[in-house]
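Lab notebook, bench 4. The sequencing result for the construct came back, and we need a structural model before the next group meeting so we can plan mutations. Quick request posted to the team channel:

Model the 3D structure of this chain.
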Amino acid sequence: MAKKNILVIEDNHAILDVITLILESEAFNVAGLNKGAGFIAHVKEFNPDVIIMDIMLPDIDGRVLLKELKETDSTSHIPVLMISARYNSTNYTLDGISADDFMAKPFNIDELMDKIYALIK
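Done. Here's the predicted structure in C-alpha cell form:
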C-alpha cells in the first residue's frame, strides 16, 4: 500500500514536531505548515489524505481555511481533524462548516492515531 500523506498546520513548533515524529514513525509522509499562508496551493501540491489543523494560527483562523478547503471542489473531499486548546467540539464551527473530526489540546497520542486511521478509511 502506498504511503498516505498527512498535512499538519500547527503554529506551535513543539506540537508540530511531536505530531510529525509520531506520524512518520507510523510510516506516513508528513508535511507541516506553521501558518495559513498559501494553504490551498500547498494542499493541491502535497495532495494530503488527511489534514490536521489548529484553529488558532498566527495569520488566520483555521476555521476560515477549513471553509475555503470545503468550498473548493478539488479539495472538499479531504478529511480534516481540527485541533484547539481554546475551542471544543461543540463551539468551533464557523458558518455551519465543521471538520470531519475534532480534538481538544492537550491530546492523547493514541486518540490522535485512532482518529487519523478512522479518517483515512
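The beta strands are 5-9, 29-33, 50-54, 80-84, 101-104.
Will bring this to the meeting.
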